[in-house]
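*Target chain*
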Amino acid sequence: MGETSLSGLVDAHVHLDLLADAHEAIRAAKRAGVEVVLGVSMGLGSMQRTLELAREFPGFVLPALGLHPWQIETEDVSRVLERIEATVGSAVAIGEIGLDYGIKARKQLQKEVLRRQLGIAAVRDLPVILHCRYSHSATLEIVREMNIRRAVF
């Protein structure tokens, strides 16, 4: 996707798939003067819903695709990563991804999944949207290691 010039309000982190009525929330945001919303994803179903809304509201809902650390133990990681790679051309960012050391998901698995998603972002030079609970230093270290140039923590 090309560069966008914005001068108004931007909601840079919305879980549209978790809203009871995403369509009404989007209409309300527009009425309130919001120019763009960045829909972040947490897993396969979340990504599908976010992409659907981006198609329904082109230029207003910008999709970010990713596997959130909370979902790593419940999702088919390989399948989600394949879906991200297959649809990354529709995304403006990779997210919400990261590390969360406050949950039971294995730290090594979280790091591996984070590196793979950062690799997808690096190839496309996409920004990343990061979740880093109790893991700020480790997350920053991996982001630097993977040569990510743009990130929101």
